[in-house]
């Protein structure tokens, strides 16, 4: 069953500027700029104000279950972009091998990881 209009709003935190052009979103904050393109999803995005605060509104017209689920997906991705430009992300990696030993070298002050003796690679 199709739903005529489904929408979701996402409040924009202070210290963050956001641009929406079509379905491309650019978020700027103290830790940098992130850009993401949602052209593959059939949603409408635009900036509005609610109670004096800027809000990103994501709408979907005549959507079935799969298209309606994409609304929350877009909001979650944009919210993660807000986290990325304010707090940042840190990834920790653990390398595990079972039978064939591998060697790891970290180069360029932690920007490059070289894996040696990987199976089928010499």
UniProtKB/TrEMBL annotation:
GO MF terms, alphabetically ordered:
rRNA binding; structural constituent of ribosome
What SUPFAM superfamilies does this protein's entry cite? Ribosomal protein L6
Biological processes, Gene Ontology terms: cytoplasmic translation
Query: Which Gene3D superfamilies does the record match to this protein?
Result: Ribosomal protein L6, alpha-beta domain
User: Could you state one GO cellular component term attached to this entry?
Assistant: cytosolic large ribosomal subunit
Instruction: Give the residue spans that cross the bilayer.
Output: none
Could you tell me which residue ranges the Large ribosomal subunit protein uL6 alpha-beta domain spans?
12-88
* Tree of life domain: Eukaryota
Keyword Ribonucleoprotein (UniProt) = yes
Question: Which Pfam families does the protein's record reference?
Answer: Ribosomal_L6
Q: Which UniProt keywords apply?
A: Ribonucleoprotein, Ribosomal protein
Q: Which PANTHER family match?
A: 60S RIBOSOMAL PROTEIN L9, 60S/50S RIBOSOMAL PROTEIN L6/L9
Kindly provide the name given to this protein in its UniProt entry: Large ribosomal subunit protein uL6 alpha-beta domain-containing protein
